[in-house]
Amino acid sequence: MKKITIAANWKMYLDEVSSIDFIDKLNAEKELFINKDIILFPSHACIRSVKDHLNIDLKIGMQDCDIHNKGAYTGSTSIGSIDIHSCIVGHSERRIIYKENNDVIAGKLGTVLSSKVDPILCIGETLQEKNDNLTESIIDSQISILPKDLNGRKLTIAYEPVWAIGSGDVPSNEYIHQMLSYIKNRLKSLYSDTDLNNIKLFYGGSVDANNLQDLISVELIDGFLIGSASANFEKFKDIVKQIKL
Questions:
Q1: Could you tell me if 78 and 66 are in contact, meaning their C-beta atoms sit under 8 angstroms apart?
Q2: Which one, of 48, 46, 50, lies nearest residue 38 by Cα?
Q3: What fold does the segment set 5-241 form as a domain?
């Protein structure tokens, strides 16, 4: 059985106190989380506190990063500012709220790939784009920023239909399989088998303990990028319980 990754994107739901409280609860029930492939994505300001309080070997990531590694960029956070495992780039909230286009996201992806950090590139269509039958062209555009060669680097593509995020409207397994198959075929046209072996496919969008077990049955899913449900310890615990070793 393949090992499923749970990537917990806390967004801006937890401050430092509540992040530490979450970790204290996790430590108290650490047997459930040991040997599971889990990546926690606290807010930037809470990463150090989370790392310092965590008593088991879980991965920690950044929710976003700046294109630049250092310099006069007030308010930004560089990929090298703290030791982490992964970094999310291209999340739909960055694309929509902060108006980040493909050029900006390509720059961030390149910055992450030039570091030792593993990138998670988010892609997905809005409801309007889906209704206009533009999903495949949107995906083509969003993955067009990928480098020609990964040079042995690991990469995760997280398919997150924007209309499913936080809405409770989860696509059918058939729809998710169709879209992941399309993405995988596009990747096959770009990369060698060696590079393909280093690419994982995640799904994200209203994932919770009630639907995760059914979603795991989608053959191409290697993991899940989970938002608000992952920032509530009891909900997160119920999600992790669904993952069998």
A1: yes
A2: 50
A3: TIM Barrel (3.20.20)
Could you identify the residue written with the tokens 């997905």? Answer: 124
Active site residue ranges: 91, 160
Q: How many helices (H) and strands (E) does the chain have?
A: 11, 8
Q: Which residues pair with 120 in a beta bridge?
A: 88, 156
Domain residue spans of the chain: 5-241
Partners of 39 in beta bridges: 7, 59
pLDDT of residue 54: 98
Question: How crowded is residue 18: how many other Cβ atoms within 10 Å of its Cβ?
Answer: 14
The shares of helix, strand and coil residues in the chain, as percent rounded to the nearest 5, are 40, 15, 45
CA atoms of 173 and 171, how far apart (whole Å): 6
Q: Which amino acid is at 156?
A: T
| The two three-digit tokens of residue 78, written as one number | 């560089």
Q: Which tens digit of pLDDT belongs to each residue from 86-95?
A: 999 999 999 9
Residue 200 structure tokens: 């994982």
Take residue 146 and report the two structure tokens written for it: 């990928």
Strand partners of residue 87? 62, 119
The pLDDT, as a whole number, for residue 2 is 78
Task: Pull the structure tokens for residue 240.
Answer: 């992790």
Strands (E), 53-151: 59-62, 86-89, 118-123
Query: Positive or negative CA dihedral for 122, 126, 131, 132?
Result: negative
